[in-house]
Amino acid sequence: MMKAGGVLWVLLRLLLWPEPGTASSLPLVMDSIIQALAELEQKVLVTEASGTASSWILSASNSSPHNSLHQHLLRKTPSHNTMEPDPHSLSPELQALISEVAQHVVQDGQEYGVVLAPDGSTVAVKPLLIGLEAGLQEHNVTNLPSECLAMPCDAGDTLTNIGAIWPGLMDASTNASFTDVGATLPNDKAKTPTTVDRLLAATLARDLGLMFLNSSQTQSPPGLGTEGCWNQLSTRRVFTLLDPKASRLTMAFLNGALDGALLGDHLSRVSKPRPPLSHLLKEYYGAGVAGDPRFRSNFRRQNGAALTSVPTLAQKVWEALVLLQRLEPGHPQLQNMSQEELARVATFATKEFTETFLGCPAILPRCRWGAAPYRGNPRPLRLPLGFLYVHHTYVPAPPCTTFQSCAANMRSMQRFHQNERHWDDIGYSFVVGSDGYVYEGRGWRWVGAHTRGHNSRGFGVAIVGNYTGSLPSDTALNTVRDVLPSCAIRSGHLQPDYKVLGHRQLVHSDCPGDALFNLLRTWPHFAEAEN
Ligand SMILES: *[C@@H]1O[C@H](CO)[C@@H](O)[C@H](O)[C@H]1NC(C)=O
Ligand SMILES: *[C@@H]1O[C@H](CO)[C@@H](O)[C@H](O)[C@H]1NC(C)=O
Ligand SMILES: *[C@@H]1O[C@H](CO)[C@@H](O)[C@H](O)[C@H]1NC(C)=O
Ligand SMILES: *[C@@H]1O[C@H](CO)[C@@H](O)[C@H](O)[C@H]1NC(C)=O
Ligand SMILES: *[C@@H]1O[C@H](CO)[C@@H](O)[C@H](O)[C@H]1NC(C)=O
């Protein structure tokens, strides 16, 4: 049986030394990556103690200054006398695929190094594999190098805890979803941070911190969490970003980094022998790891929020920046920055990340479910709106629980609305599946066709299913009641004192069904209809 570490080692070796050659004909989907892992697991025989990906990251890092942190964090394993696996034992098709996803790059509005996962999300491969590697090397902290190479870092007393530097973090308005906010913030003065969380620094914290160094303290870098579109649902070769000015912190990068952190954390805690990585990824991007339907890619944001609290993540971003400053004293963005400035950047980056990503619903854009074009000219909404109108779809009646079925439902509703009702587009602003995702209908900016006479005043949000006699899943309910509105308020689409109404309060209809409507009446923003 092939060992997980060895397989990853070969894979990352391919990532780092991509062979120029024939483009792969394989679609850029997660199943192709899983197939590559499975093939390696079958063909390559190494022991877990032999080299891991880290040795290749180490040797490749000279050519790229950006790898200094990975080099430091992903330890070289001591034993190298076992037979080195040969990456060329992979089929040429899989070799080509692996070199294609070797690096995560955002250039000219296109994103490279990403694949489509079975849940409909797009995932950057590199941070995912880095997380797996860090997890195989055990989830643990490592010491910061002691010598102080950068100018300001020996400037007297500093603090080990970010909460003491930047207590504003304690007021973060997103505490609702994080249970341990403020639990670990002693205010005692001590030295500068001495350790770094290897897993989080390598997957997420470094890039998050770096990307925010350039932005002012009031604005996210452009395109944080930008989505994109695959050229064709059938072949999936080119991924074009919806915001051409997007930073590297795209949705696919955040997804990959979070998946890497979650799976790395899992790997560091499972007892040995560890499961083959192909098996682990198949479960994670399928029905759930070890049969747990909550531990899968569909719920990465909820699981990510549970993995670490806001102050802890801010601390880790800070540590990663301090480490990078030590490793690269000449780094143009880090030169001459004080510990406090770095702490502020880390705090702001963490706040933005949690409020705009972790605390927001995962919305799959129109292109992902295969929407037909809008017919005619859409009318813009005057934002922010004051109402959220809740619907059930009634038909389709069964709740959709997979990307395939939810996307198919979206297409059939759009066909019905366009061809039978003669509307310009699917009527709803958003549709909520029971798969953990929200599907973009007319979206935040355009007037919908969901609540006759009120379409310009509110967003129409439907949950797929017939909720006459039963209730939607807790996830779907939570999305409509809490996550979607709080995120829409933050982004300026919804007024803070918005009101929730059921479709039937404004239009002669049973929608959103007796069961759902009775529950709706208990929601904090529920309002009786005015005449
Ligand atoms: C973490 O590192 C410390 C110090 O190196 C070590 O004593 C401890 O056993 C490690 N914990 C795990 C879970 O690997
Ligand atoms: C944050 O937590 C405090 C104390 O538990 C609570 O009173 C407050 O409403 C919470 N804020 C938000 C935005 O949920
Ligand atoms: C930040 O700004 C520096 C100097 O202006 C530039 O070289 C660097 O590429 C920028 N970094 C990012 C992540 O935008
Ligand atoms: C940092 O400080 C040094 C010495 O004070 C100065 O020469 C250098 O230009 C500064 N670098 C930046 C990026 O401000
Ligand atoms: C919706 O549910 C109700 C109550 O369970 C049932 O009577 C009705 O036939 C269902 N409608 C559809 C279209 O499934």
TrEMBL record:
Q: What are the Peptidoglycan recognition protein family domain coordinates in residue numbering? A: 361-507
Which GO biological process categories is it annotated with?
biological process involved in interaction with host; defense response to Gram-positive bacterium; detection of bacterium; immune system process; negative regulation of natural killer cell differentiation involved in immune response; negative regulation of type II interferon production; peptidoglycan catabolic process; regulation of inflammatory response
Signal peptide residues are 1-23
GO terms (molecular function) for this protein are: N-acetylmuramoyl-L-alanine amidase activity; peptidoglycan binding; peptidoglycan immune receptor activity; zinc ion binding
What the entry lists under Pfam families is as follows: Amidase_2
Q: Which UniProt keywords apply?
A: Immunity, Signal
Looking at the record's lineage, which domain of life comes first? Eukaryota
Q: Does the keyword Signal apply?
A: yes
Q: Where is the N-acetylmuramoyl-L-alanine amidase domain?
A: 374-513
Report the transmembrane regions from the record.
none
Q: Which family does it belong to?
A: Belongs to the N-acetylmuramoyl-L-alanine amidase 2 family.
Q: What is this protein called?
A: N-acetylmuramoyl-L-alanine amidase isoform X2
Recall the taxonomic lineage recorded for the source organism.
Eukaryota, Metazoa, Chordata, Craniata, Vertebrata
